[in-house]
Design goal:
The protein has 466 residues and is α+β, with helices and mostly antiparallel strands. Helix 1 packs across helix 2 and helix 9 packs across helix 11. The longest helix has 23 residues. The radius of gyration is 25 Å and the shape is globular.
Length: 466
């Protein structure tokens, strides 16, 4: 590879990394050409030659694919919020670009996304194909994986990136290993090889998928042609440990993604990766021992630096009051219906948070308004899976906010609702039981009762806060 091409690759891959981590910011030709240290005109030509796609086309595609990825797992997210977050000037321009790429409007994609992707040759994630039920995924995970949610430290890597042609991965690793040995940069202790996936194969066509073959380094390096330094930032990840054959890796990824969704976690923008712990060629069964790592948003309930082992025992059946037997799946199903009811009836007033379902003992979703958002407060409707009771509480964005308002209420003579005993071990500031013994057999009456009691609590607390 001549020196000029090596320099082109170094600068272009730097810009590609920047684009993928900044889809919600300014990605103009002027800004990106400065990042690459080329004139806009020269950069535009080089980019199209190296990547095989014009800059503005790639940026728009990446943004559309990011929005499509979100819509596949969260149909209730306001489309307008995504449009402006990811740099489109208007709903009209976004809808036109989206339809040009996927062949349907964004609204139709929200309800028919998987069928649309299948028609254009992108195999959608199908829970029916691999995992028929929550019980089956629990069984598959128990047999094949150990999954924890934990904070991973910063990881420094050397890597080679490529677009499409995944079969070239072996050659990429060979070139990478030879370069690293020659430069003597590999980590001397706990050396690991990783594959990073920069695109979501559920929404990106295979010829455009970008991936990187990487390995951990023991010292800082500079970009050298196709080899470049890559840093995985410290953060929360779902980490699944597997010992499986090559043909099972796809199933493991799909199972991991479904596990994240079913346990109420939120995907975080970042690189998804595999970390290898062995050379599968030396394994008696030719199996890979690897970790699949998915970046997640941090939750208030997570203590910094402390691994959080997720307990899947919540999938077992639990007896509920009012003569109705409901298991975890049915309880979550009811909470989804309740959230959809509030979204349908009160969409103009409230912005609803995602349904949290990562604990076998309870599930909840939040409601907030523009005024509450400015105060960093929210209301939360909670279902206790053990007792079957519904409650509502006033909560805050973080512990500092909760403490401030808890002290305000504690110092007043207002005693209408229950004040948390201590803010140190509670996400609630003030709470109230909505329905102590619900009749799940009469959903209409139950939803009406929850709605009335919730709005009464919300209106009284909101008036006081104002």
């Amino acid at each position: 590879m001549n020196r000029t091409r090596r320099e082109y690759l170094k600068r272009i891959h730097f810009v590609l990394d920047f684009i993928e981590t900044n889809l919600d910011s300014d990605l103009s030709l002027e800004r990106l050409s400065k990042k690459a240290h080329y004139s806009p005109y020269h950069f535009h030509r080089i980019f199209a030659t190296v990547v095989g796609e014009k800059l503005n086309e790639l940026v728009n595609r990446k943004r559309i694919e990011r929005i499509a990825s979100i819509l596949l797992v969260e149909q209730n997210v306001p489309l307008k919020d995504l449009v402006y977050t990811y740099g489109f000037n208007s709903d009209t321009s976004f809808s036109r670009a989206f339809k040009k790429y996927y062949g349907v409007s964004p609204t139709k994609f929200k309800s028919e996304g998987k069928q649309v992707l299948s028609k254009i040759g992108i195999a959608p994630f199908s829970s029916k194909k691999y995992i028929c039920s929550i019980a089956n995924i629990k069984q598959w995970i128990e047999m094949n994986a150990q999954i924890i949610v934990k904070e991973l430290p910063e990881i420094k890597l050397a890597g080679i990136s490529h677009i499409g042609e995944f079969e070239k991965m072996g050659d990429m690793y060979q070139r990478l290993m030879e370069w690293g040995h020659r430069k003597e940069v590999w980590a001397t202790s706990n050396f690991k090889a990783l594959t990073l996936y920069h695109d979501n194969p559920n929404v990106t066509q295979t010829p455009k998928l970008r991936f990187s073959a990487c390995a951990t380094i023991g010292k800082d390096i500079k970009a050298d042609g196709e080899i470049r330094p890559i840093t995985l930032r410290k953060g929360i990840y779902a980490v699944g440990h597997f010992e499986i054959a090559a043909e099972e890796i796809s199933r493991a990824w799909k199972g991991m993604c479904l596990w994240v969704i079913e346990n109420g976690h939120e995907f975080r923008d970042g690189d998804y990766f595999e970390m290898y712990h062995n050379d599968h060629r030396t394994h008696p069964g030719q199996k890979f021992i690897l970790d699949i790592c998915i970046p997640l948003e941090r939750k208030d309930t997570m203590e910094p630096g402390r691994p959080l082992q997720m307990d899947l025992s919540g999938f077992k059946e639990k007896a509920q009051p009012a003569g109705t037997q409901l298991d975890y799946h049915h309880l979550i199903g009811y909470m989804k219906e309740l959230r959809a009811f509030f979204h349908r009836e009160h969409d103009a007033r409230f912005r609803l948070g995602k349904l949290y379902q990562g604990n076998p003992d309870f599930s909840y979703f939040s409601l907030t308004t523009e005024g509450l958002k400015e105060q960093k407060l929210k209301f939360v409707i909670i279902l206790n899976h053990k007792t079957g009771s519904f409650s509502i509480c006033l909560s805050g964005q973080n512990k500092t906010i909760r403490k401030r308002y808890w002290e305000m209420f504690k110092g007043s003579d207002w005693k209408q609702y229950h004040l948390a005993e201590s803010i140190h071990d509670s996400l609630c500031i003030i709470d109230q039981t909505l329905v102590e013994k619900p009749d799940f057999g009469n959903k209409g009456n139950l939803m009406g009762q929850i709605e009335r009691e919730s709005l009464k609590f919300i209106n009284e607390i909101s008036a006081l806060l104002e």
